[in-house]
Amino acid sequence: MVERQPFPGPGLGVRCLGAITRDRLEALREADAIVREEIDKAGLTIWQYFAVVPDFRATSVRDGKRAYDRPCIIRCINTVDVMTAEVPGICRVCYDLAPKPVGTVEWE
Predict the structure, then answer these.
(1) Tens digits of per-residue pLDDT, 6-62?
(2) Cis ω on the peptide bond leading into residue 8 (within 30° of 0)?
(3) Strand, helix or coil at 29?
(4) What CATH architecture does domain 1-108 belong to?
(5) 43 in the Ramachandran plot: left (φ > 0), alpha (ψ -120 to 50) or beta?
(6) Residue-range domain boundaries for the chain
């Protein structure tokens, strides 16, 4: 029980930034399930991890056509005291893993 991931934690609303709609919540649930499955398959030990769907869009290519949709942010946190997990002056580290194609060169 102690090692169990808290899901959805304080609620999906804090991980579905901006307007909360049924479609965005469904996408968030599916993305979060994939994140959890892949971390479990890899045998990684991470204190907490989850997916976030922000309220902005980015361009990409899907099925040979330009797509303009929301990205999924994966947050993984390791900590030794459950109070600190970041570097002074930095509040987040984001990795954008989108090969070209599907991603475009710039963040839009």
Answers:
(1) 655 556 778 888 888 899 889 999 998 999 899 999 999 888 888 888 888 888 777
(2) yes
(3) helix
(4) 2-Layer Sandwich (3.30)
(5) left
(6) 1-108
